[in-house]
Design a protein that fits this description.
Two copies of one chain form a homodimer.
Chain A lengths: L7 H7 L4 E7 L5 E5 L3 E3 L3 E7 L3 H8 L2 E8 L2 E17 L4 H11 L10 E15 L16
Antiparallel strand pairs in A: 1-2, 1-5, 3-4, 4-7, 5-6, 6-7
Amino acid sequence: MPPAPVPAEVAEFLTRPNHAVMAVLRPDGSPHSTAIWYEWRDDGTVLVNMDDVRPRLRWLARDGRVAFTCTDPESFYRHVSLLGRVERTYEDADRSDIDRLSRRYTGRPYPRHAHPRVSVVVRVEAWHGWDRDPREAPEPDRPRLPV
Amino acid sequence: MPPAPVPAEVAEFLTRPNHAVMAVLRPDGSPHSTAIWYEWRDDGTVLVNMDDVRPRLRWLARDGRVAFTCTDPESFYRHVSLLGRVERTYEDADRSDIDRLSRRYTGRPYPRHAHPRVSVVVRVEAWHGWDRDPREAPEPDRPRLPV
């Protein structure tokens, strides 16, 4: 997988409100994945945000290695995956991060305020991409983005 | 996370050609994720299929622990994640598995036949689900599926 920084066209893709799945490590070292909102930042980091009760926060404090797969909502066959590790975790005290994420994905601030929110900043170290729709281009030998 | 078997409604969801991301472990124990086609099977396993040159096949032979997140193509806010481990790996010699997967997702057999294909069967051990669209239901306290 190519190391960071990601090329400009990949960074542009990542700025969109794509569907994303984040994979982390459980305490036994096994992978765990779930869908998540993310924000790509110009400094080559990814921001995610979660309820402070999420087990993933404890798991990430133990082992901060993370993988993301970000998929174009319009095409499952266009996606970028990222490898990285947690650089910083902090309470999103004024909820500005979760509200910004929510506006990006839904057009409005985040409605559920029962639990404190925590932001996690992941430094991206490597990436790979895929851009080949088998429904449109049946037999190319190579995807258009490096894999 | 609830242990397998998954409830009937979750199994029904998994039979659809959902978007899916598979997370595996690289040799250094870090997570790796990518988008993938999958097939849910009535015996509580998930079948995936890949080119025999994929590094993931070597990684899975080393550590067969896997996570999937399967997302409704119509709603990013409806998804099921699965934890499991590889039960069986075999060459898809007649390409029946990849053709069946391809038909399921694209309506036609798989076009690229440059490399041999390998099928991987994952035994599901636990799952969790999410079914709450923040655009439609702004303030429920709980998702409808257990998390």
